[in-house]
Amino acid sequence: MKVSSKDWIDRDSKRVWHGFTQMSTYGDLEPVIVERAEGHYLFDVDGNKYLDAISSLWVTTLGHKVPELDQAVINQLGCIAHSTLLGNGSKIVIELSEALAKVVPVKSPHFLYASDGANAVEQALKIAFQYWKNLGIDNRETFLALGDSYHGDTMGSVSLGDGGFGTNLFDPLRFQVLRTPGYLQPNWLEIALEAVLEVKDRLAAVVFEPVCQGAAGMYMASPQDVKTFVEKCQELELLAIADEVATGFGRTGEIFASTLAGIAPDIMCIGKGLSGGYLPISATVASGKVFEAFLGPDLSQKTFYHGHSYSGNALSCAVSLAHLELFSKLEIVRKVQETSLYLAEILKGKIADHPLVKEIRQVGLMVGVEVQHNGYLKGQLGRIICKCAVSNGVLLRPLGDVIVLMPHLTFGKKEIDEMTDALLISLNSLDNSL
User: Helix 413-433 and helix 332-346: axis angle, to 10°?
Assistant: First the structure.
């Protein structure tokens, strides 16, 4: 006998704890229980079909069940699923690292692997902190981070982030950072550079999301301002850490947002789209200058005493390598640039003038549609609109009252139209009820 979605939700609620979710109301919100996927679509346990317009939380790039990526996992399973990188090497990890070195905008890059973006950021913080210690400089123990930033949910990354998402509860555990305004404030650059000049002798690094602060609500900075910020910091011999977990792998119309801004970070964090959304993997990318500061005698204090059990997992690396090769073969960056122009045109024609829409922010295929109405508490409107979109066969997720549109990089005009039509229907249905 077929089990209904309601039964699955009940079983889910009894045993699974979902992140960023109030479990007492989880079942009441009619969550989609996914059973399988095909191309750009997800299918629930009842057979209902949904356009994956959030790229399964920004990780899926080329779609689901991509034959070349499926085969890469199968081929690697025929060799080995995992072996440790602590003191030993792995053929597939070396091959992936060599391929990544050709595309990351970091000078003489070296890759330290982890499983998710937050841990890539955590590694970056520890590397930057120890870098100065290894050079014999003891007072570089502060980080500069921007307002509205989000860098993950480990304690180090939460400390960098500018609150929200319930993180204020953990203030006693968070370390202090120098906080300057985020991209929402027009003069963020001038204020940040003034602060850097004042405390440059105490800074271990500046940490930023290049061009787009994603989880904040898709707040955008001009690539030129980001370039100016990084180059001024590097002129002062400060380390620049670019958090590209969300913006990397084509989302902004270049393979990395740092490429779009024309910068070469000293340390870079990548994740999410690295494996095309197939398996958990992230990496902290260190420049040659940073890496060399950790070289010394065996078992010395210059060693970076940090590592994960599943760092450089062979299956994850194999699919990531295949993804990178396919990325180039399919000319994904060019396709994103073309599709983003069409998406901007459709948003302007269909969505921008809607009475519930306050603002649309877009770079590449990263879009935030901010909605507002005085009759709703903050966050209510976004959730209602996304729920309506799901009932119309399109999976969206809000950031408060910002509706995130994060299509697969391989969406065509048909899928763009389907996504924006569902958003418009949702906006209209709510507007008509007010």
Answer: 30
Q: Say which residues have a Cβ less than 8 Å from residue 19's Cβ, sequence separation at least 6.
A: none
Distance separating the N- and C-terminal Cα atoms of the chain: 43
pLDDT tens column, 267-301: 999 999 999 999 999 999 999 999 999 999 998 99
Instruction: List the domain boundaries for the chain.
Output: 32-62+331-433, 67-329
10 Å Cβ neighbour count for 338?
12
Q: Which residues contact 360 (CB under 8 A, 6 or more apart)?
A: 347, 348, 351, 352, 367, 368, 369, 370
Judge if pTM exceeds 0.85. yes
CB neighbour list of residue 309: distance below 8 Å, 6 or more residues apart: 84
Contact 271, 238 (CB under 8 A): no
Domain at 67-329: CATH code: 3.40.640.10
42 touches 57 (CB < 8 A): no
Q: Which CATH superfamily is domain 32-62+331-433 in?
A: Aspartate Aminotransferase, domain 1 (3.90.1150.10)
CA distances from 59 to 248, 250, 272, 275, 280 (A): 10, 11, 4, 8, 10
Helix H, strand E, coil C: the string for 373-409 is: CCCCCCCHHHHHHHHHHHHCCEECEEECCEEEECCCC
Token code pair at residue 4: 């209904």
Element (H, E) at 207: strand 203-208
Under 8 Å between Cβ of 356 and 427: yes
Q: Write out pLDDT tens, residues 163-208.
A: 877 888 999 999 999 999 999 999 999 999 999 999 999 999 999 9
Tokens 């095909």 identify what position?
A: 38
CA distances from 162 to 174, 361, 419 (A): 11, 20, 31
